[in-house]
Write a structure and sequence with these properties.
18 helices, alpha+beta, six-stranded antiparallel sheet, endoplasmic reticulum
Length: 696
């Protein structure tokens, strides 16, 4: 058998690539395993996501601002590893004791370690350069921030796993462009769709990688459309394949995640109040579960009304009056009012219909729901809402028009399902909840006002929940349960409102997007004083500042390369290939960095340092590609091949040694510190506090 030298080289290269890939995976796994086995207490957001994993094991319903996949996987990892879901996850620093937490941490650490081979393979595919891929792998293995973030029960390593999986699959699919509809082409295209569903299913910021893949797909289709040798029928097949794999498949998987989520969490829990009464009626243990009530509202019914704002409470009143100086001195109304619509008990049943003028009387105090043009206690330009009258006798300010969203005049009002708006007849204002908490004189309940600004928001919408009327037949609330599509839509509306409402807690360290690339301020994961075991989330300074410099350097190289090509400068075949890598491969990675970083400048919610890490993955890959190209450019201008190899090898070795030395200095940030804070001159970490904003 004859074996050519080219075949031998190809086999040797494949063995070398597999060796480095295996080596990096083992090193990354070892570094993370060493850490999460040593830290035996809960840290930072483990108190949220570990607790949510426990909820899945106990099948207890909860609410979170993120989609469910990440928490479901954490719960599954805990369940399969023998965790019983009983650890309370009350605060950072609580010891796990006998609770088996290793499975959940090990799962997150494994996914975090996969980022290294994913980035290695992505850069190798884009640049066809082993040194560029090696440099990228070194950066991610020895970054203290990536190690810290991957060693705990958090969503970030799960998100970044699917994100990098989508990028790698996209790049691999692009490399199969010369053999479309082959098995490998279908595999990578489908895997891209699966990874997109995973990224979206963990956090909404997964939409950024969806946008990246979408732009890449549009570019590919546009290129195919310009290929005159390709028939329109074949172009249609390309389009259909991408629609199926990159739109239909991810959406189907994403929807399936929620179906599993709602099927598993079927017991009442701390998340009930964030959802509608109709949804709550399906949860075992909820006070609406298996309840029978009259279906349609009638005059004379005793009802409770719930506000539809997120975590909205019931309309409520009590005997206490508003204090002097706070509007009219009448009975207080707040969100936490049981009503009866009075009618003659001997009269026939008359149903309440959309557009009716009604009066609502508080059952306990016999006062009517009332508003007037006195200013509300807390919200300026809103009118005060009170309880007024004696035994149902009041005045013209007690009348309200009841309107059902999306209904026509005369239609009946259903308990649980109908969303109603109460418009004050005399003033035209709308009953609603401001969301502000009253002072102690108002028992710290949420303020109810009548707003003259006619905007339809959840704060101004209500539904009827409990319903008692002996004249009407009862029906099971199962008849009124919402469909899966309605539940899916409601859950997303609740998550979006929850995200937009996230505000920093007292004494909580937050950050701004411009802080992140310069590694300006880290994040305490555990411990606050000298006696605590302290872990601090901070990127390896040399790596992060190298990444920042590289972004500027890449822009300069790109401009210089583009100008040289435009001016017709004669380049060798090797330099032309390098130019292609810089412009095409580097451009894709830079676009990924921009899409995962710039949107945070437009977000109004609270932001933290860890939000930058998906973008950091792209900047690290860009560093590998850019420095490899730069060193090759420099070596290419040297006439002596030996000197050129030395320059290239020396520059690469200097970067690797610099990264390793910086990791040696800062590794205690990830592995834990005990002793004086770095601000204390006697601390062994004092010399490493290169910026005053670092608080380790």
């Amino acid at each position: 058998m004859t074996v050519t030298l080219k075949t031998i080289k190809s086999i040797s290269k494949k063995i070398l690539l597999d060796f480095f890939l295996t080596l990096f995976s083992i090193v990354a796994d070892w570094l993370l395993w060493f850490v999460f086995c040593c830290c035996v207490f809960s840290s930072w957001d483990e108190t949220h996501f570990g607790k949510m994993g426990s909820y899945y094991i106990n099948r207890t319903f909860f609410f979170d601002v993120h989609p469910p996949l990440g928490k479901m996987l954490i719960g599954l990892a805990g369940y399969l590893s023998g965790y019983d879901g009983t650890f309370p996850f009350q605060k950072p620093g609580d010891r796990y004791e006998q609770h088996n937490y290793v499975g959940m941490r090990g799962f997150c650490a494994f996914l975090g370690s996969c980022l290294v081979p994913f980035a290695y393979l992505t850069v190798l595919e884009l640049s066809k350069s082993l040194p560029a891929a090696l440099l990228t792998a070194f950066i991610l293995i020895f970054d203290t921030g990536c190690i810290t973030l991957s060693q705990y029960i958090l969503l970030d390593p799960i998100l970044m796993f699917f994100l990098m999986g989508a990028v790698l699959s996209m790049v691999k699919c692009n490399s199969c462009a010369d053999r479309p509809f082959s098995a490998s082409w279908w595999f990578w295209l489908s895997l891209t769709g699966v990874s997109l569903a995973g990224a979206m299913g963990v956090k909404f910021v997964g939409l950024f990688v969806v946008l990246l893949v979408g732009l890449n797909t549009i570019y590919d289709l546009w290129d195919l459309l310009g290929n005159l040798s390709l028939s329109l029928v074949m172009f249609g097949k390309h389009l259909l394949a991408r629609v199926l794999c990159l739109i239909v498949l991810p959406l189907a998987l994403y929807t399936a995640m929620f179906a599993v989520h709602f099927a598993v969490l079927n017991r009442s829990g701390p998340g009930d109040g964030f959802f509608s009464s109709a949804f709550q009626s399906q949860l075992i243990g909820n006070n609406l579960h298996n309840v029978s009530v009259p279906e349609h509202l009638a005059y004379g019914s005793v009802v409770t009304m719930k506000n539809l704002r997120m975590a909205g409470g019931y309309l409520h009143s009590h005997w206490h009056l508003y204090p002097e100086g706070v509007g009219a001195r009448q009975q207080q109304v707040g969100v936490l009012w049981c009503y009866s619509d009075l009618s003659d008990p001997s009269s026939p049943v008359e149903f309440v219909r959309h557009g009716d003028i009604i009066r609502l009387e508080h059952k306990e105090t016999s006062r009517n729901l009332h508003s007037h043009q006195h200013e509300a206690p807390l919200t300026r330009k809103h009118f005060q809402v009170t309880g007024y009258g004696i035994n149902g006798t009041g005045d013209s300010n007690d009348f309200w028009r009841i309107e059902v969203v999306g209904r026509r005049t005369g239609q009946l009002i259903k308990v649980l399902r109908s969303q109603v708006r109460l418009t004050h007849v005399a003033t035209g204002c709308i009953l609603g909840s401001s969301g502000k908490t009253l002072p102690k004189w108002g028992w710290e309940q949420v303020e109810v006002t009548c707003t003259p600004y006619l905007k339809e928001t959840p704060n101004s919408l209500w539904n009827f929940e409990d319903h008692i009327n002996p004249k009407l037949p009862n029906i099971s609330l199962d008849v009124l349960k919402p469909s899966f599509a309605e539940i899916l839509l409601e859950s997303h509306m609740v998550m979006i409102r929850g995200n937009s409402g996230l505000k920093p807690k007292d004494n909580e360290v937050t950050s701004k997007p411009w802080h992140w690339p310069i590694n300006y301020q880290g994040l305490r994961f555990s411990g606050v004083n000298e006696t605590d075991y302290r872990v601090y989330l901070l990127g390896n300074p040399v790596i992060w500042w190298l990444n920042l410099v590289t972004i500027g350097l890449y822009l300069l190289i790109t401009v210089a390369t583009a100008v040289a090509l435009k001016r017709g400068v004669q380049l060798t075949s090797e330099l032309k290939e390098l130019s292609r890598v810089v412009l095409r491969a580097g451009g894709q990675i830079t676009l990924g960095w921009l899409l995962h970083y710039l949107p945070f400048f437009m977000m109004g919610r609270v932001l933290y340092f860890h939000h930058y890490f998906p973008a950091m993955l792209f900047s690290s890959m860009l560093t590998g590609i850019t420095w490899d190209a730069l060193l090759k450019f420099c070596a290419g201008f040297l006439s002596c091949s030996t000197t050129a190899r030395r320059v290239y090898g020396g520059g690469f070795l200097a970067l690797v040694l610099l990264i390793l030395y910086s990791f040696y200095l800062f590794h205690p940030l990830s592995y834990g510190m005990i002793g004086p804070m770095a601000s204390n001159p006697s601390s062994p970490m004092a010399g490493l506090r290169w910026m005053d904003s670092w608080e380790f």
